[in-house]
């Protein structure tokens, strides 16, 4: 089925470890996004990529890096994980802008101990 | 700073009853407004959106929302709730004129009693 695929679905890290969350979409969308979801705080934008080759910071970029590998793939990297990064991470894509509507992946539940 | 507020954290309704979920935004002009729904363990799905025109917009799954400029509100409604509507609902705004920054509210968890 067409959509946004995130891997892994679950991950436990120790403080200080690094990891990369992978995201791929097969809808030929230009824009991709990374959000984190925390209880009582809704979804907060970490980084986004308006088009292949560009990335921009969102509301909570500290502690994260991103790579728009090609039009399909947008990865999120935690260089040195901290307990405050325990969260559910969602990748989304849109044809171009917010008005086009976002398609979300099913999320990655990350726990940092 | 612009923000979006969903005053109700949890709402419980009986199946077949009507539903209204509240959303207020703070922004000088009319932003792009959205409602998304998140079923358990899933990503979010777009229900409907508004920017201009008719202030009552229809969405998927029988949902509608009404924009009220005077109240800075964009409330989501459904005349008759089904058990499958149990989910978390998020109001979202884009104040960048249709850019790439969607700001979500904190969500309202809907429980449906049979």
Outline the secondary-structure elements:
The complex is a heterodimer of chains A (about 110) and B (about 110).
Chain A: E1 4-7, E2 10-13, E3 19-25, E4 31-38, E5 42-49, E6 56-57, E7 64-68, E8 74-78, E9 87-94, E10 103-104, E11 108-112
Parallel strand pairs in A: 2-11
Antiparallel strand pairs in A: 1-3, 3-8, 4-5, 4-9, 5-6, 7-8, 9-10, 9-11
Chain B: E1 3-5, E2 10-14, E3 19-21, E4 24-26, E5 32-38, E6 44-50, E7 56-58, E8 64-68, E9 73-78, E10 87-94, E11 103-104, E12 108-113
Plain-language structure description:
The complex is a heterodimer of chains A (113) and B (114). Chain A is an all-beta fold and 113 residues long. Chain A is 0% helix and 51% strand. Chain A has strands at 4-7, 10-13, 19-25, 31-38, 42-49, 56-57, 64-68, 74-78, 87-94, 103-104, 108-112. In chain A, strands 2, 4, 5, 6, 9, 10 and 11 form a seven-stranded mixed sheet that branches. Chain A is globular, with a radius of gyration of 13 Å. The model of chain A has no long low-confidence stretch (mean pLDDT 95). Chain B has 114 residues and is mostly beta strands. Chain B is built from no helices and twelve strands. In chain B, the strands form three sheets. In chain B, strands 2, 5, 6, 10, 11 and 12 form a six-stranded mixed sheet that branches. A four-stranded antiparallel sheet of chain B has the order 3-9-8-7, with no helix packed on it. In chain B, strand 5 (32-38) and strand 6 form a beta hairpin. Chain B is globular. Chain B starts with a strand and ends with a strand. The model of chain B has no long low-confidence stretch (mean pLDDT 93). The chains are: A mainly beta (113), B mainly beta (114). Chain A binds chain B through residues 4, 31, 33, 35, 40-45, 48, 50, 56, 58-59, 90, 92, 94, 97-99, 101-107, and chain B through 9, 32, 34, 36, 41-46, 49, 51, 90, 94, 96, 98-107.
């Amino acid at each position: 089925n067409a959509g946004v695929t995130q891997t892994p679905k679950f991950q436990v890290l120790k403080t200080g470890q690094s990891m990369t969350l992978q995201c791929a979409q097969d809808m030929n969308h230009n824009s991709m996004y990374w959000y984190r979801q925390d209880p009582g705080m809704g979804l907060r934008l970490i980084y986004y990529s308006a088009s292949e080759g560009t990335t921009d910071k969102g509301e909570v970029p500290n502690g994260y890096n991103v790579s728009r590998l090609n039009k399909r793939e947008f990865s999120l990297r935690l260089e040195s994980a901290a307990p405050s990064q325990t969260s559910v991470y969602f990748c989304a894509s849109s044809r171009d802008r917010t008005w086009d509507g976002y398609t979300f992946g099913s999320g990655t539940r990350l726990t940092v101990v | 700073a612009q923000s979006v507020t969903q005053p109700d954290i949890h709402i419980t309704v009986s199946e077949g009853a009507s539903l209204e979920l509240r959303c207020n935004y703070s922004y000088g002009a009319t932003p792009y407004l959205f409602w998304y729904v998140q079923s358990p363990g899933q990503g979010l799905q777009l229900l409907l959106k508004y920017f201009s025109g008719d202030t009552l917009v229809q969405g998927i799954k029988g949902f509608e929302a009404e924009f009220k400029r005077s109240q800075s509100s964009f409330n989501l409604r459904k005349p008759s709730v089904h058990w499958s509507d149990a989910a978390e609902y998020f109001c979202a705004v884009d104040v960048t004129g249709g850019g790439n920054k969607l700001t979500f509210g904190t969500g309202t968890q809907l429980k449906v009693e049979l």
